[in-house]
Amino acid sequence: MLQGTDRPPLRALGIETSCDETAAAVVEMDAQGGRIVSNVVLSQVAEHAAFGGVVPELAARAHVTATDGVVAAALDEAGLTLADMDMIAATAGPGLIGGLIVGLMTGKALAKVSGKPLAAVNHLEAHALTARLTDGIDFPYLLLLVSGGHTQIVLVQGVGRYERWGTTIDDALGEAFDKTAKLLGLPYPGGPNVERAALQGDAGRFDFPRPLKGTDRLDFSFSGLKTAVRQAATAIGPLGDGDVADICAAFQAAIVDTLADRVGRALAAFHTRFPGVAAPALVVAGGVAANRAIRATLLDLCGKNGFRFIAPPMELCTDNGAMVAWAGLERLRAGLLDDADAFAFAPRSRWPLDEAAAPMVGSGRRGAKA
Ligand code: KG4
Ligand code: ZN
User: Fold this and answer.
1) Pocket of ligand 1 (CB under 6 A)
2) Burial level of 211, CB count in 10 A (0-12/13-18/19+)?
3) Structural domain of residue 27, as residue ranges?
4) pLDDT tens, 65-93?
5) Residues 121 and 161 in one domain
6) Full-prediction pTM beyond 0.70?
7) Which tens digit of pLDDT belongs to each residue from 307-340?
């Protein structure tokens, strides 16, 4: 049910509060695609840095303080008011429950007072559909979601139609970066600091494990790697800058190798399942997608396997309100919204995209990153 070209665009206000970003955005959708009208993100990184990870109680309090102002800023930046919106979309899970309650209740209140439809959005669905906003890609495609809370390979077949092909059975990838950084005395958030240190290091000094490499399943495991890093660091004793750089380089090499193995298998499986899709796409999302070594490897892998590599701009890979607004619009267009359901919806800290997939620690869970 695409909008006709002569119809005005549909417009949504999106609210995101599931972890440590308070975010809101206004997004439009028409027959040609999507357009971000405003996008405001207030990060809580500074509040959590001293603790080496996200503290749920602090996050919830920060969302209470910030959400109304961030929503007002998104509308202001767009030069629009609530009355100009066609719908309100708010993240309802998975994530830290305190933040979800704040965001969803704000969304419900705004929808109620304005009489607009409400979408209770799955945060993972919002990540999964972002590439359709930025690049207008068609279904089906593969998604690699690598953030502080998730590590998943997902087949995206349509709005609301997801198959989880792989997930982590222990730590999320961003969490593995953050824990490694903490162990080596590098500041939070660890990912960028590990990447920076790795540039100076010798990856060949340590031979860290590549958990699950070579197995048929597409799952991930990072806790064995974390243990190997800890043992290497302990064996050296007080670490010099050179030691830290070498450990970071070897750690990142193990990650890159593992991702290439898992994702390579997923691309092959996609070709087998959808031989008719001429130019399939691999979409990457989540904060870890900022890592240059990981991006370069995925780009190369896609090139060799006839896939397009789609990495939305960094500010849309990490948490934001635009992806939530867009997911709401996609649901509205697909006829999947039901106001009674949305208003009755209780936030879910655990909410897998693929409800049929076997529950695992890393699937559909989004919690503290440390
Ligand atoms: O998606 P995100 O901003 O927040 C959520 O977890 O939802 O991802 C944050 C994660 C952190 O674990 C951070 O260390 C990691 O992404 N990260 C990176 C890099 N930049 C951020 N990991 C590896 N290399 C990076 N350059
Ligand atoms: Zn996220």
Assistant:
1) 19, 147-149, 174, 177-178, 189-192, 195, 286-288, 290-291, 318-319, 369
2) buried
3) 10-133+316-344
4) 999 999 999 999 999 999 999 999 999 99
5) no
6) yes
7) 999 999 989 988 999 999 999 999 999 999 999 9
